[in-house]
Backbone:
């Protein structure tokens, strides 16, 4: 969409955007169930690092958007703690506070090289914060061993801490919740996140085609072939399908690169959606859960994003919850009973009461087979082999899964990768978002 938007802006007409699905937006699409509840495929907190993307949102949504201040929490087995957890330790029990502070103090006064993500967590936060939050949160999210993940991707994705600041927050009982670029975010008034890309597709309609699944690519002859028997030729190809899948489908890619693509790993996420015939008296937007008996790593109070998420916009009558459950080859789950397991965990955590189960009038489970590209220890070496070959053949693989870089996988990052790819192709400008 970013590439298409930029081409339109520059007056170019000789291009086509092909979409595999019958709708636009990919994982940012929104669906309406038979009871009138709207569901995103997991939480989308729309924020931006780029003026160009800000303008795009303004052009698409105009005044039809809400501006929200993030209210995010962490639910441990014994406490609700404001996010970031490590900045708000005063909400823990006293013995837990001491354990976290002592671990942080030890980590603050030693300099150790981190060879993987697990080591980075321990070396940055200490044992207490690691065990009470960082380990369970990330294991739930990634569904992959942390010691097999690299630590170079972190950047602004994880809030690091200042020991003095942590102590001040505890002693003076201060809340410290403003960290992060998504502290303020926007959300469409109506239509969910998918409304953004639905409207964009309507504007770009002359050059976009849905229901166009690619089954093979001839990189040498610059042709793509579709499931319906159609084909098309290209001068430049901007790819957003998962990079490992693209390499498998592409003819003319050397065997050693196909082998390298096997080191690109991802997790999967089940989104359990619950529509409830009852209002929930909470202002929370979302919360991370760390309990061992809780199957989901994140809970979204979706009705607090927009009242029009629930039937007829009646958020004083209805509420909606989304539970995200990570799984992978390293972590199996019982898909058949996952909704029931999530409901039980919501009850045990105090989010729902046992009687509330009678008021669940909508229950949907969305399976996202490729949710997070995992920054494994072998990822960067694999990308440094694959991407140069593709670019030498006029193929630019970008976006959350095309680039296979979680750290530039936000909506704004992905959109801008498309914009900058067009500027690279047409005017040889350097890309600033994507790099090897």
Residues:
């Amino acid at each position: 969409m970013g590439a298409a938007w930029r081409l339109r802006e520059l007056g170019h007409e000789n291009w086509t955007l092909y979409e595999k699905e019958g709708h636009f937006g990919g994982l940012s699409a929104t669906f309406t169930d038979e009871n009138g509840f709207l569901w995103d495929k997991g939480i989308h907190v729309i924020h931006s690092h780029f003026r160009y993307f800000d303008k795009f949102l303004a052009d698409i949504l105009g005044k039809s958007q809400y501006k929200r201040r993030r209210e995010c929490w962490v639910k441990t087995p014994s406490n609700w703690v404001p996010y970031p957890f490590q900045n708000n330790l005063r909400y823990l029990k006293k013995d837990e506070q001491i354990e976290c502070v002592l671990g942080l103090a030890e980590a603050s006064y030693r300099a150790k090289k981190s060879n993987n993500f697990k080591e980075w967590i321990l070396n940055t936060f200490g044992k207490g914060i690691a065990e009470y939050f960082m380990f369970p949160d990330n294991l739930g999210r990634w569904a992959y061993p942390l010691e097999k993940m690299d630590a170079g991707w972190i950047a602004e994705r994880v809030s690091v801490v200042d020991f003095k600041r942590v102590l001040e927050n505890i002693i003076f009982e201060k809340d410290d919740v403003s960290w992060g670029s998504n502290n303020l975010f926007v959300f469409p008034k109506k239509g969910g996140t998918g409304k953004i890309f639905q409207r964009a597709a309507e504007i770009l309609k002359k050059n976009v085609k849905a229901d166009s699944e690619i089954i093979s690519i001839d990189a040498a002859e610059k042709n793509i072939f579709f499931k319906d028997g159609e084909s098309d030729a290209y001068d430049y190809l901007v790819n957003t399908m998962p990079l490992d899948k693209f390499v498998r489908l592409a003819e003319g890619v050397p065997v050693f690169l196909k082998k390298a693509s096997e080191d690109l790993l991802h997790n999967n996420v089940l989104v359990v959606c619950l529509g409830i015939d009852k209002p929930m008296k909470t202002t929370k937007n979302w919360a991370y859960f760390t309990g061992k008996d809780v199957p989901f790593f994140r809970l979204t109070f979706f009705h607090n994003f927009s009242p029009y998420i629930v039937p007829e916009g009646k958020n004083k009558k209805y509420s909606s919850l989304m539970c995200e459950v990570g799984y992978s080859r390293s972590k199996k789950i019982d898909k058949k009973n996952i909704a029931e397991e999530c409901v039980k965990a919501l009850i045990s955590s105090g989010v729902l009461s046992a009687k509330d189960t009678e008021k669940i009038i909508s229950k949907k489970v969305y399976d996202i087979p490729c949710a997070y590209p995992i920054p494994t220890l072998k990822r960067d070496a694999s990308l440094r082999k694959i991407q140069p070959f593709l670019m030498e053949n006029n193929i630019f693989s970008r976006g959350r899964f095309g680039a296979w870089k979680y750290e530039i996988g936000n909506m704004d990052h992905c959109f801008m990768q498309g914009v900058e790819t067009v500027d690279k192709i047409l005017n040889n400008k350097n890309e600033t978002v994507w790099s090897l």
